[in-house]
Design goal:
The protein is mainly β. Helix content is about 5%, strand content about 65%. The protein has one domain: Lipocalin (Beta Barrel), CATH 2.40.128. The longest helix has 12 residues. Pfam families: DUF6268 (PF19783).
């Protein structure tokens, strides 16, 4: 669980697969809402009368700056990736402040992808960003990361990638494992499993409408000061629901999601290397299950 928690922190500050280099301008904007739910005290797993909600808006863009073809006609792409997330939380009936009221994640980076053989490709990235709880923005809120994923394409529907990711999230530069997995089926009924994003199962109702069942993992990260010590505060949520996707054009679509937040929690981790393998004395603070809703707009103007 310790390694998983750090891996989720890395996932929160690294570019997601949605920003893999594209040959055309692509991106998405998404607004999410989780209403008030009860805080579960970690020391005894007691559901308290304290409540918190969660509202977030996200935006991500991939802007190609160079696209060429290799000798087999496959693209070699350089792109600039930009991501931003702003969350606002209202916390009620707490005896003392436990959670932030705002979080901001914003990063910009360079992404490169190319094939290196018939079945292998690489995706390299380097980025820098601000990860803050908005109380005080300083140089400690600046986190940089870079890495290379070596991706094996078993067939057009299945790909697995691994590689090193270098980050200063833990104070000193440290190499963490990076992982990418994508598997999808074709036809009227489609199943897609993607790590680190989630799972989708959908049915094509018409040329313009597709109805999906989704399970998604997402999070945010903020550098915080606790007892004059720099630490990383992580927010993680797992949601599930129904999502109709409506194509407005060949390159533009909207997604509406209604469902439930299966898991929602905060974690506080030390940025000191010597604390990396230490086990926590108690569970992370979490919240009870409640409604989840979101609306998104996505586009991809790549040549097809």
């Amino acid at each position: 669980m310790k390694t998983l928690r750090y891996s989720l922190t890395i996932a929160g500050i690294a570019f997601g697969s949605s920003l893999f280099a594209q040959s055309g301008f692509s991106g998405k904007i998404k607004a999410e809402y989780v209403p008030f739910s009860n805080y579960v005290r970690p020391i005894d797993s007691l559901k308290t009368g304290s409540t918190s909600d969660f509202k977030r808006i996200q935006a991500a863009f991939s802007i190609p700056i160079s696209t060429t073809l290799d000798e087999l006609g496959r693209p070699k792409i350089w792109a600039v990736g930009v991501e931003g997330s702003y969350a606002k939380m209202t916390n009620r009936n707490y005896e003392e402040p436990l959670f932030p009221t705002e979080m901001l994640n914003a990063q910009i980076g360079l992404i490169h992808s190319r094939h290196i053989s018939k079945t292998w490709s690489i995706m390299a990235m380097a980025s820098v960003g601000v990860y803050t709880d908005m109380e005080e923005i300083s140089s400690k809120d600046l986190l940089a990361q870079g890495g290379v994923l070596f991706i094996k394409h078993f067939n057009p529907r299945l790909a697995l990638g691994v590689g090193p990711v270098l980050t200063n999230a833990f104070g000193v530069p440290m190499v963490m494992p990076g992982l990418y997995f994508n598997w999808s089926t074709q036809g009227r009924y489609k199943l897609q499993i993607n790590f680190p994003n989630g799972i989708e199962f959908g049915a094509k109702l018409s040329d313009a409408v597709e109805l999906k069942t989704v399970v998604e993992l997402s999070g945010m990260t903020a550098e915080v000061n606790r007892n004059n010590t720099s630490m990383l505060l992580g927010y993680q949520q797992v949601v599930a629901g129904l999502r109709p996707e409506i194509k407005l054009s060949k390159s533009l679509s909207i997604q509406l999601t209604a469902g439930t937040s299966l898991a929602r929690s905060f974690s506080l981790t030390s940025r000191r290397l010597k604390d990396f393998f230490k086990m926590k004395d108690e569970a992370d603070p979490r919240f009870t299950t409640t409604f989840y809703g979101s609306a998104g707009l996505s586009w991809n103007f790549s040549k097809r």
